[in-house]
Amino acid sequence: MTTELIDPQAVGATTGKYHDESRQGEAYVPATAGSNRPGKKFYIESYGCQMNFADSEIVASILQQEGFGATANHNEADLVLLNTCSIREKAEQTVRKRLTEFRKTKEKKPDMLVGILGCMAERLKEKLLQEEKLVDLVVGPDAYRTLPSLIEEAETGQKAVNVLLSREETYADISPIRLNSNGITAFVSIMRGCNNMCSFCVVPFTRGRERSRDAASIVAECTELYERGFREVTLLGQNVDSYHGPAAPNPEAMAAAVNFAQLLAMVANISPQLRVRFSTSHPKDITDEVLHTMARYHNICKYIHLPVQSGSSRVLQLMNRTYSREWYLAKVDRIRAIMPECGISSDVITGFCTETEADHQDTLSLMAYCKYDMSYMYFYSERPGTLAARRFADDVPEVVKKRRLSEIVALQNQLSLQSNQQDLGKRFEVLIEGDSKRSADDWMGRTSHSKVVVFGKGNHNHQPGNYVWVRVHDCTQATLLATIEE
Ligand code: SAM
Ligand code: SF4
Ligand code: F3S
Q: Could you tell me the pTM of the whole model?
């Protein structure tokens, strides 16, 4: 597994690999027949978490209904959209830089519309129109249904803004258009927003209140994916374990609310050939019922992303994470007691307000105890309006934050290598996702515990989407190297 400084929820959709504040040019999406916008094209770039990438697929669907086709070349687009992230300052800087690049295109093509979607749109609202003179549309994450009318407004030269957050919107009835898909793995949003108030985090402000999508529409989307040949779905939410959705879209069905463990079982029952993953779990909400459900189903992957953020109980309290170091460690023990083979990964922030050298050592010792397979690691970036920004001074010097970050990265690199070495000589079932990046003679796939495996194709007639048994003979810190076993 990788231990880069990358965003857990930023995904390059072609590979399923995560990138920090990454972006994607999109696959071709044909306009609908009888389009009222013949020949009009949109171009979309996505930044930030998997949920943002999943939202771009909803936006693509809404725009296709409106008659837009997609292009991967922004120079030929009539509408350029940036689906943005605010999680760290750097994420916003990346988007600002990109906007100045689009300014040049717009100078040559004044009719081209530029829109900002997602979390930066929500956080900065009209300010974006004032600051960035080239932005024509500002649309928050709950307002994508209004894109067609906002585009019409913008076409008449008005500045179009809708950043209303909703308590109900889940886009449950919109069938996402899979962008840059490998045809095997897909993300499925099961909820939106977040009711937690981690003091460092901007998400509750940019995404609004937590709400769960109805279970029937989730199962229908996953079934359709399976029927189209997809073999793995990742159920997405900021806090999936607090999923609590109605069984069906009608309000009476609320009586039969479905919890996350039940939803997992419903999706796993679609087919034993469909793997189920999920992200992200807040340690306070993952229940024994979820763990036992994972253990019961072979096709629910034995892998949990369980962000700790800090190993110091004092810092965890300031972060408002609502658990202590001891409580978290007990949760890790519980996971290992129920599923000894389960992979566990984490998110860690260094240099949070008041963090001392002793707190930092606590983080290192916790990581060593948990033996994470992988972690996403960041230094603290103060976000305006958050509880931490209002209450605490951002008092750890950047040089210290970065030094601590390099120490946790170095430790994680060791842990990842050790974890892979433990797998030497073992047999694993792997879902083939496609060619390995280095050679078309090798396949790349993943184990249930989410490790990347590369192995020679040999004379076997396997295809992406097939499950194969392999035996590991070598490894790097990031990859298991294996051979097919029949
Ligand atoms: N909902 C998930 C959870 O509770 O773990 C993750 C949400 S966030 C999109 C992904 C990660 O970004 C967090 O787990 C945290 O490590 C990191 N993060 C959030 N706010 C941050 C900040 N202000 N500075 C640095 N890292 C931050
Ligand atoms: Fe942010 Fe905490 Fe919600 Fe995760 S659980 S999105 S870190 S507020
Ligand atoms: Fe995701 Fe970034 Fe928003 S991580 S929820 S796109 S702030």
A: 0.93
CATH code of the domain occupying 41-162: 3.40.50.12160
Asked if 118 contacts 141 with a C-beta cutoff of 8 angstroms, the reply is yes
Q: For the residues of 194-254, what is the DSSP string, one character each?
A: -----TT--HHHHH-S-EE--HHHHHHHHHHHHHTT--EEEEE-TTGGG-EE-SSSSGGGG
CATH for 427-485 is 2.40.50.140
**Is the CB–ligand 1 distance for residue 405 below 6 Å?**
no
State if residue 201 touches ligand 1 by the CB under 6 angstroms criterion. yes
Q: What is the mean pLDDT of the chain?
A: 91
The number of beta carbons lying within 10 Å of the beta carbon of residue 104 is 10
- Interatomic CA distance for residues 389 and 402, integer angstroms: 20
Residue 151 CA to ligand 3 centre (angstroms): 24
pLDDT in tens, 124-156: 998 888 876 779 999 999 999 999 999 999 999
The reply to whether 41-162 and 185-421 are identical in fold is: no
Burial environment of residue 125 by CB neighbours within 10 A (0 to 12, 13 to 18, 19 or more)? middle
Q: pLDDT tens across 163-202, in order?
A: 999 999 999 999 999 988 999 999 999 999 999 999 999 9
CATH superfamily of 185-421: tm_1862 like domain (3.80.30.20)
Q: Which residues contact 237 (CB under 8 A, 6 or more apart)?
A: 51, 189, 190, 191, 192, 212, 243, 278, 280
- The residue contributing the CA closest to ligand 3 atom 5 is 203
Distance (Å) from CA 84 to ligand 3 centroid: 7
Whole-number Å distance, alpha carbon 239 to ligand 1 midpoint, is: 12
| 255 pLDDT tier (thresholds 50, 70, 90) | low
CB of residue 8 inside a 6 A radius of ligand 1: yes
Q: What pLDDT, on the 0 to 100 scale, is given for residue 249?
A: 85
Q: How far apart are CA 482 and CA 255, in angstroms?
A: 49
Cis peptide leading into 71, omega within 30 of 0?
no
Spell out the domain ranges in the chain: 41-162, 185-421, 427-485
